[in-house]
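Today's session is about reading a structure prediction critically. Students often jump straight to the picture, but the first step is always the sequence itself: look for stretches that repeat, for charged clusters, for runs of hydrophobic residues. Only then move on to the predicted structure, which in these notes is written as discrete structure tokens rather than atom positions. Here is the chain we will use throughout the hour.
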Amino acid sequence: MVTDWKFFLVEHGVDPDYGFLLTPFPEVSLSSYFAPWDQAALHLPEWIENGSVAEEAGKLPFKDPGRISSKGEMERAMLVLSFLGSAIVHTSADASPLIPRNISVPWRYIATRLGRPPVLSHASAVLANWKRTGNMGVVSLGNIEPLVTFTRTDDEKWFYMVTVEIESQAAEAIAAVALALEYTTTRNSENILQQLKVVRNAVRMMTTTLKRMKEKCDPSVFYSSIRPFLSSFKDVRYDLGGRTVTESWHGGSAAQSAVLQFLDAGMGIEHTEPKSSAYMKEMLNYMPPQHATIVRKLKQGSPLKDYCRSESTLQFFYDKAVETIHDFRTEHFKIAHEYIIAQAKAEEGVIGTGGTELSSFLKSMRDDTKKKVTKLITLFTLKQHPNLFMANPYINVMKNSFLLQI
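Below is the predicted structure for this chain, in token form.
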């Protein structure tokens, strides 16, 4: 078991201030050799609007991805090619869309180097898709904007940036869990208590930011104009020059963020529903490999829950911290319901962009979190939110582990 979690996190690419967000800050452009890719990203919204994505993308010159010189540039190239590839696939009328060789070959090369599938995932759409609009200041709404979009609308920009801010706010909770785990080895209960308070406050901030989604991202605009491009790949053909491979991949999903999987594992929250737990395990393959390594290592066992159970005061603050994670998932479900299920006229079997059946997954993830909260906390939650667990059959289901699994 890891004893120096702070060092382990830094060693695996987790920044103390920015969490799982890509740092140093994402590259905003590629070297001049790859300028056609940057130009394509700039014109992508126009190509989508006039229906010429496949035609224009097919005209791009072939570029040798082996000439990429840095990890930052590789992430930038992955971001641009993932948006281009997703736009080609989701504007095609073909049941088995074809991604041309000039996109497929470098995209798959870069995806392999980064240890992720050739599809638009959370790591590209969010973690590597932001820049600060000011030279100084925290990563927060009003001070950040996305690097690449499909529509150039404020709705799409806001959707990504709300997620980026949540990832940034999660850094405090991640660091606090890491410290709490270390303090269990020295049996420092007072310091553990303080870190549980930090987790609680950080997740509360994440929930507050999540509630801001509707300020500038309209549910109908998201559902009709943004969500389709984040959807899964099914029987997509990649032209590799001389041969074609056909593959299917899960679409971009907040379940591909390491944040709540890390908090779950660190806090001892277990998800036992077979389909949901299998899906969350599969989502590790869509994360940056270093992030997935952290989650897998932590899932081997965390002493924090059992340690907190040994002292009534710690148990109380542990429960309070877990309650905030439950509240985050509750708020997430309310948004997912409004942005997806309601837009689809609340039909059963609504599929998220990640490829899961939305309702059953959300239910299992929320309910597994709720099981870890004591009777006192559960009663408190029910008292504050009496309508969340009754009446509407579509609100009686919650699945995901972070922002919108859409």
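Discussion point for the tutorial: The beta strands are 98-99, 131-132, 144-145, 233-239, 244-249.
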